[in-house]
Structure to design on (186 residues):
């Protein structure tokens, strides 16, 4: 499917120069002279190389047609992660590099969406918000309530995030898995 350069968004997979590229960052620029363009930073899915490309608003690029399948994470064996298709019960082994920083939020029996290009998996999408227990949290420092201050806390999965001062160990919180930020109490 062809899309215009201004319609490119982070996370999209593009078929560009006969390779699959995942869009990492975009920046829309409108110079004083000339037409607007989209500065796009992409990472190749197969070999991991990066590419910075400039697309004008009238340029078109091919968006890769991906098939989404609901899968359940079963277990990890070294760098390989095993997932089970929720409809056919077939198991698929995926390299942990495909998840990158999202790996810390993955837990056993979690349901995720895996995108396939043909028969090869190209991305794993975790739930946007997840619930965790705060294992340890720093003590509140008096006098920090004048402005919105946050304190570091460690979650049950080992991740460290910033939480409001009123939260303590043993409480359950909701975390945004895309950027690892506190959303609210569970």
């Amino acid at each position: 499917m062809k899309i215009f350069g201004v319609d490119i968004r982070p996370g999209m997979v593009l078929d560009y120069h006969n390779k699959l590229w995942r869009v990492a960052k975009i920046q829309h620029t409108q110079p004083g002279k000339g037409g607007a363009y989209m500065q796009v930073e992409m990472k190749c899915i197969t070999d991991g190389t990066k590419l910075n490309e400039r697309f004008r608003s009238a340029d078109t690029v091919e968006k890769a047609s991906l098939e989404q399948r609901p899968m359940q994470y079963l277990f990890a064996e070294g760098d390989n992660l095993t997932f089970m298709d929720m409809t056919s019960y077939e198991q698929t082994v995926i390299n942990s590099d495909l998840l990158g920083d999202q790996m810390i939020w993955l837990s056993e029996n979690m349901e995720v969406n895996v995108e396939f290009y043909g028969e090869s998996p190209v991305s794993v999408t975790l739930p946007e918000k997840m619930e965790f227990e705060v294992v340890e949290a720093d003590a509140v420092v008096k006098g920090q309530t004048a402005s919105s201050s946050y304190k570091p806390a460690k979650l049950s999965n080992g991740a460290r995030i910033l939480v409001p001062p009123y939260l303590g160990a043993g409480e359950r919180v909701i975390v945004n898995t895309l950027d690892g930020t506190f959303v609210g109490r569970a």
User: Anything to note?
Assistant: The CA atoms of residues 19 and 47 lie 10 Å apart. The chain has three domains: 2-63, 67-125, 129-185.
